[in-house]
Amino acid sequence: MIDFAAERDAMVEHTIRRRGLDRPALLAAFRTVPREEFVSGNYAGHAYDDGPLPIESGQTISQPYIVALTIDAAGIGPTDKVLEIGAGSGYAAAILGQMAREVIAIERHAELVELARERIERLRYDNVRIVEGDGSRGCPAEAPFDAVVAAASGSHVPTVLVDQLKPGGRIVMPIGAPHSIQSLVKLTKKEDGTLEREDLGAVRFVPLIGEHGFANTTF
Ligand code: SAH
């Protein structure tokens, strides 16, 4: 029997807190959400390794440290309405749900939507909603957002996403070519509508496929 709770605490300590991400709300969220519930059964024993794992539809659940880095950069607070693009397994959406008021997580693969929705409902993350669709368009029906967190990479940040941000809102998104090293970029929409850009380091994410992302070829 694996002691998942002990592994979870150790993961938070070694791969998140000791690597410099130490905001209490972030650590509390990672200590609460059971990652083993978001990976397929075969991989449960690796749920607390600090690496990505394969999920259905040929996608991946991101490395815990990178999920933490992305969410930390987005500066999520308890009154925020957040859009996650690329819900995948639903894990990052569940973490966001612990820190924000409301989370809309959009995913293009119907199979993943169904699995993520089942998990989110079973674990009672009532402020998290999994939506099927093309997140490269954002989610106009639910806009505006305080923060947008993209778990898939684009060649640029689509303007439609900036348009769906409140003044003071943040977007964190990996920018670069598919299947290469990308740069994690944070854009902050200032009160006057202008954007401030920060580069947060090198990452590797699956491509954002859609109208304002890459074309759907073999992904
Ligand atoms: N946040 C996820 C990581 C999933 S990987 C987790 O915690 O498990 C990125 C996901 O983005 C993939 O599931 C992929 O299908 C999805 N994706 C790619 N392009 C998309 C788009 N235009 N709209 C919505 N989801 C997209």
Automatic annotation (TrEMBL):
All copies of domain Ribosomal RNA adenine methylase transferase N-terminal, residue ranges: 66-191
Subcellular location: Cytoplasm
Gene Ontology terms: biological process: methylation
Annotated GO MF terms: protein-L-isoaspartate (D-aspartate) O-methyltransferase activity
Catalytic activity, EC: 2.1.1.77
SMART domains xref list: rADc
CDD domains: AdoMet_MTases (cd02440)
The reaction(s) this protein catalyses: [protein]-L-isoaspartate + S-adenosyl-L-methionine = [protein]-L-isoaspartate alpha-methyl ester + S-adenosyl-L-homocysteine
Keyword Ribosomal protein (UniProt): no
Matches recorded under SUPFAM superfamilies: S-adenosyl-L-methionine-dependent methyltransferases
Keyword tags: Cytoplasm, Methyltransferase, S-adenosyl-L-methionine, Transferase
Predominant place of localization: cytoplasm
Active site feature: S62
Stretches assigned to coiled coil: none
Keyword Cytoplasm in record: yes
Described function: Catalyzes the methyl esterification of L-isoaspartyl residues in peptides and proteins that result from spontaneous decomposition of normal L-aspartyl and L-asparaginyl residues. It plays a role in the repair and/or degradation of damaged proteins.
HAMAP family: PIMT (MF_00090)
Family statement drawn from the similarity comment of this UniProt entry: Belongs to the methyltransferase superfamily. L-isoaspartyl/D-aspartyl protein methyltransferase family.
Protein name: Protein-L-isoaspartate O-methyltransferase
Organism ancestry: Bacteria, Pseudomonadati, Pseudomonadota, Alphaproteobacteria, Sphingomonadales
